[in-house]
Amino acid sequence: MVQPIKTILEGESSEPIKNQFSQSMMLPLGRAKLRAVELLSSIVSLKKPAIINAASESGVMVTVLSLITSHPWNNVIQLKAHQIFEDVIGSEISKEEKLRFVATSDCSSHLVKMAQSPDIVFSTSGNRIRNGHMGFVIKLANLIVKMKGNYSASDDEQTFERVFSAEWEKFVEGELENSNERNSKNLGGRPTSTTSEDEETH
Fold this sequence. Notes:
With about 200 residues, the protein is mainly alpha-helical. The chain has a single domain (about 1-5, about 35-190), classed as Leucine-rich Repeat Variant (Alpha Horseshoe), CATH 1.25.10. The protein has helices spanning about 1-10, 30-45, 50-60, 60-70, 75-90, 95-105, 105-115, 135-150, 155-165, 165-185; strands spanning about 15-20, 25, 120, 130. Strands 1-2 form a two-stranded antiparallel sheet. A two-stranded antiparallel ribbon has the order 3-4. Helix 1 (about 1-10) runs antiparallel to helix 2 (about 30-45), helix 2 packs parallel to helix 5 (about 75-90) and helix 3 (about 50-60) runs parallel beside helix 6. The longest helix is centred in the C-terminal third of the chain and has 22 residues, at about 165-185.
């Protein structure tokens, strides 16, 4: 069941449309791909080892994360993708299988690359906002960081290093920590204004 979903997700996109932020042309995700991600989320939510392992072996999550990268403002696919990772990590499969699922998705490298996406600057006001997928990046990254507490390099060194690489740790100690701190300040009641410092809070 997983392979047909991946085939749909890898299919050609619809005709390009104009991006309202940058005024450049972009490819829409399309209804078929969105429904395919929703179906994938539904079957993974069953938390059956055979389904999760099939998804892991197929590499379908690499495709899903690539779509999030290329469609940063589609909140639905972000929510479904995050739910997939939550369901897998919260399932009763072995911790080795969970780590393998995250590793085969190339989750760490995708999140790091997404975090490096430049801010969007509005030409009229000069105000900046972060790319649309940054909320997804921070939320999923925090889930992966929490997951790390159950592992050590001695479990499966190659898989462990693929997920918790040096590049990943640099991201966690830099961008992720800074974003969490900014979000914590905002949730604590710190008002947002148009000053340069607050424009960096997303």
